[in-house]
Write a structure and sequence with these properties.
By secondary structure, the chain is an alpha+beta fold. The chain contains 3 helices and 2 strands, in the order ααββα. It has one domain. The model has no long low-confidence stretch (mean pLDDT about 80). This is Putative ABC-type transporter. InterPro entries: P-loop_NTPase.
C-alpha cells in the first residue's frame, strides 16, 4: 500500500509531512528526511544519513 500512497502523493504534486517511527516505512515514502531529537530539527538528505544522525545523538 505504501508504494501506491507515494505514487499518489507524487501525482498530486503537493508537499506532505509524513510522521512515522517506522524506519522501513519512512524509507518507502520519503524523498528527504528530518530527524527531531531533543527538541531540535536536523535536516538530512537520505535515509542512511538520518539513521547515522539518530545513532550519534541517542
Amino acid at each position: 500500500m505504501l508504494p501506491e500512497f507515494r505514487k499518489a502523493l507524487k501525482a498530486a504534486g503537493v508537499p506532505v509531512l509524513f510522521v512515522t517511527h517506522d524506519a522501513g516505512e519512512a524509507e518507502l515514502i520519503a524523498d528527504s528526511f528530518a530527524v527531531i531529537t531533543g527538541g531540535r530539527v536536523y535536516s538530512v538528505n537520505g535515509c542512511r544519513e538520518a539513521f547515522e544522525l539518530m545513532r550519534n545523538h541517542s
